[in-house]
Amino acid sequence: MLVTAVLTRWGVVPTMACNGEQAVLISERQDFDIVLMDILMPVMDGVVATAKIRQAERENPLRGQVPIVAYTSLDLGTDTARLAQIGLTAVLPKPCNATSLEACLARWCPDKFLAN
What we know:
Elements: H1 2-9, H2 20-29, E1 35-37, H3 46-59, E2 68-72, H4 80-86, E3 90-93, H5 98-108
């Protein structure tokens, strides 16, 4: 809720998914600048959802690869090779504050996000 409120205040319109399966379905129909992926979700967890999104990207190379940032309270570490193996671009630890969210957006979609 905090992230949604901060993004809205910055003029970013977030698209929410209730579970990993829904996240995959939404990502098949819409292009995104960045995905903040919760890892612990019902129906399909964030790791499986990330793998499915990455598979869809490989099958349709015209779409390009969206940065997928794990937004989680789990300790996934900072090993970029391990994160890449999962399909994740980076980790944004929960809970986050506006400063860390802003840094994440500025890092992974700098041409789309201008800090307010």
